[in-house]
Amino acid sequence: MKLTKYVDLIYDDQHLHPINKDHCSCRLPSNREIKKIISLTKELIFPGYFGKYITKETGSKGQTKRQIQILYKTLSKQIAYGLLYITDGKGVEENKKQADIYTKLYLEAIPLLRETLKTDLEAHFTGDPAAYNHDQIIVSYPGFYAIGIYRMAHVLYEMNIPLLPRMMTEFAHRETGIDINPGATIGQYFMIDHGTGVVIGETAKIGNHVKIYQGVTLGALTTKGGQNLKNVQRHPTIGDNVTIYAGASILGGNTSIGNNVTIGSNAFITESISDNKRVTEKSTETKNQLMYHI
Amino acid sequence: MKLTKYVDLIYDDQHLHPINKDHCSCRLPSNREIKKIISLTKELIFPGYFGKYITKETGSKGQTKRQIQILYKTLSKQIAYGLLYITDGKGVEENKKQADIYTKLYLEAIPLLRETLKTDLEAHFTGDPAAYNHDQIIVSYPGFYAIGIYRMAHVLYEMNIPLLPRMMTEFAHRETGIDINPGATIGQYFMIDHGTGVVIGETAKIGNHVKIYQGVTLGALTTKGGQNLKNVQRHPTIGDNVTIYAGASILGGNTSIGNNVTIGSNAFITESISDNKRVTEKSTETKNQLMYHI
Amino acid sequence: MKLTKYVDLIYDDQHLHPINKDHCSCRLPSNREIKKIISLTKELIFPGYFGKYITKETGSKGQTKRQIQILYKTLSKQIAYGLLYITDGKGVEENKKQADIYTKLYLEAIPLLRETLKTDLEAHFTGDPAAYNHDQIIVSYPGFYAIGIYRMAHVLYEMNIPLLPRMMTEFAHRETGIDINPGATIGQYFMIDHGTGVVIGETAKIGNHVKIYQGVTLGALTTKGGQNLKNVQRHPTIGDNVTIYAGASILGGNTSIGNNVTIGSNAFITESISDNKRVTEKSTETKNQLMYHI
Lengths: 294, 294, 294
Prior knowledge:
Three copies of one chain form a homotrimer.
Chain A: H1 4-16, H2 31-45, H3 61-83, H4 92-127, H5 134-140, H6 142-158, H7 164-176, E1 179-180, E2 185-186, E3 191-193, E4 199-200, E5 205-206, E6 211-213, E7 217-219, E8 237-238, E9 243-244, E10 249-251, E11 256-257, E12 262-263, E13 268-269, E14 277-279, H8 284-288, E15 292-293
Helix pairs in contact in A: 2-3, 2-7, 3-4, 4-6, 6-7
């Protein structure tokens, strides 16, 4: 099949109208490697749950070692690629050294990740009558899965590594429909039930023992400022012991939800709520006061 | 690369702070095998649609046999792993015998699954002006796909097999954004259009000829009782010939929706609705009575 | 393991109650091949971003040629399978010739796709304070990803090729939770933020510089007419410079949104809105006028 005409057309267009990369080193972080980093971290946090081989409660030391070696190699390479955005594609060797430091900090953070995720696991079990046991939550609950990936990504976000943290949470978003920006600050015992459609913005702050349902947005009131708003708090602050039911939207960087607050389904909140309040949308039948026969 | 320090740190943490499995046999059901079970069941229900090889309308008997053999082997092993949660990790041989019985009951249920899914297929075709033909629905409609997996999982849920049914519907949830708990009871001619964000709870009951759209929740009014609510009806009952438009929430185990009811987009329902009613949210422009110029 | 009883049961059922394919050629378009078509088109549009090998800014001509050859072969075969629905399973050779013409038209459209997607890329960058740079959007933003696949699919939709366009957008739907029907007409500089739960119907028309958020529905007011409504405009028309915030529903083929309009979160719109208006839902606390202590 002669396709010369189309090869010329497309190749010329690629040259005449390039999509300019943000640096010219031609080394981009890869979604496939990101997935590997997530899998390996999960296996280290939950030994014996996800690996290819059936293992004892805590794995063998040899296995843990091999997992850490592969994780180190994969993650440090991806971090080095990410750092090229800061150094404008230059300093490959220098970036490798820096990536080595960051990767080791990530490994050091794993025991803390395990500790925090155990509180989230407990919150998912006690908060859901449909949960059969803890193992079920670990192997199949999307909320717990997305929170785990967010917590890994947040460690890298705190180190200011470009692209990687968001690529990790977007992987979780694809798998679960839960979109937690890696910049968000989230306390312990966090639970997301069902989760599809949840959006938690970059500058949101969430306390301990918070439970949110599918379709909840912790978002910005407006993003008209675009890139100028980059370092402003644009998303709400949520206190401790707060429950937010399905489809509620809480918007704005000045919106603060107190402790022990319950926000009902589909509520639309743009002002602060003080401690111990309950905010509920009126049901449709009450609001309309009448219903129509067909 | 010397990583001894990190291997020690993480391995010690795995031992000092284990995440205790719910039984100690080290045999967990696997998401990869669950996916295989779903694929094989789909190929048996829709011969010639999904297999690797192009096949005649109904496949050859040899092919059907091979598919059943692999399905039997895969499913009985996973069921046996699931049963370990009931027997606290003991009785591996006894569980294998029990798993054999359950697997055969599952195989026997396949003709009934086919019959029911044909009614769902018809509902998707007649209910959607955008549907080109039936084949398009089978190969690409997420609602039909999620309903198929729910119906398979429900067969195993009825046998009280731990973990597997939910792992199956969570696979569908990941693929489609549609979260149907395998415990729900759903009649024939069921249709879900678009589907992202749909949540149908464990104790929901749905009649025949029901059509629901994206973002609909059939949920619990409160789950504050947590694990104590395990066997209580927490989710609504929906009659026959009911249509529920996008984003509506119907909550509570005492909430019952009659036959021939239409629930409008974004409605928020917490009380029962009698037969033949139409419940609609007022549109935003009517409710606000005025609009603001920028 | 003797499974003869179950093989007979299921095989007989497959024959006695066949699920009739819409044509009898036993050649169906395949989701796996659809995925390959999307990947190859993406690599041609964004050279060096997604390929297996690290490449220069615009790739080598040899690489572009190989990508085009594989794309040609894969796509023309799938189009030929799709055309069998028009020719009722007959005319395989004739369909191959027709598929060749369509595939070449698709290749010719790639430079235009690149040009349009560059406007969408710009809209995503300027519209999102959380965007680090353009590369991040290309490799990880779900809205940009789904729009790209929609634009590819729309090219094939315009050629009236059965099944393939919808299979492409349903692939995007599975990955992102964003469901754009390939029939929709969408202008330049289009942005979808977060995106989970977005539904854009087959006959929707969208202008330039439109920005929509997660959970927005541009849907039909009713689909009770089913297949009879196939060629009627059932979905709204949106002007230029319109922003639609999270969870808003705009329904109906006669509903037209003017230029420079802002639609607030969770708004429910079923009537036309004139230019320069801002329509917002009252916040829950204002609407209820009081809040209850627990």
